[in-house]
Sequence to fold (334 residues):
Amino acid sequence: MKRQAAVIDAFRQRTRIPAGGLFRWVVLVNGLIFTLGTLVFVVSPATLSAPIKLTEIPVLGVGLAVMLTANALLLRSRLAPLDRLPASMSRVDPPRRSARLHDRGDLHDLIMSFNAMLDRLETERTSASAAALTAQENERQRIARELHDEIGQTLTVALLTLRRTVDGAPPGIRRELEETQETLRASLDEVRRIARQLRPDALEDLGLPSALHAVCNEFAQATGVEVVKHIASQADRLKPDIELVCYRIAQESLTNIARHSGAHKAWLDLHTTSEELTLRIADNGHGGVVSEGAGIRGMRERALLVNATLTITSPSNGGTEVRLVVPLSTGWSK
Fold:
């Protein structure tokens, strides 16, 4: 963000409007209008007296109004991109793709410089986000392996040892040992669940549809929220980056439903065509204003990596919908 702000400040300080071209245009427009006004006055039957009569003032007023209106309309059409430039600048910071301005005559250099700046910012942001998210996924996998191979194995050995102890324990302490055994078993299940969230084996082994079924079932079991699934099967695997982005966005959306929505029912739809993939997650919660926290910003950054469009709607009358549309011709290689 600091890098983007510095580039924008430098652009504002160094970019100058081509004053010569605009000056010539303003002089040309004003000269043309006044020349036409003079010709109309010369060839028309209207006359002016010295001093001007009261009956001639309306004629002068109408002529002046017509000239000023024509001048304003011509200059307005020419300088319109300048009105859109501040609004476009103000939309650069959020993690969304910024609209480009269209080239208009004498403002060509200014508009092209601004559009080139947006291209550089988005390229740098995409590269930085890709590197950061790649490092994040690698760290997730490392932690998942350690949880499974180290902590998981240690808990398994402890559970087996405790089971043998319970079998030979006197009746007086067997009850307490059995309770400890159940606590240890629950801890082992929780470690395995966290490891699956960090490194979804179903996604790597079976693909996106199976992974989404698994995450929905686990979410429903953990939260009690009913999840209605419409997940289309796929004959071919998608690019790994697209599958990972869709999985993480679905995972984050379900987490937000559990934390913030107060919903008791959710929907997850996945549809693909030859050109695009559409993922939709919705709920029947209380809805309202969606705050752009770290989770949603992370979802937007992930969507940008695969040139996807992410929209989040949450009307005040209830419910929230997250929709991700991914073009299948693009992708990000980790």
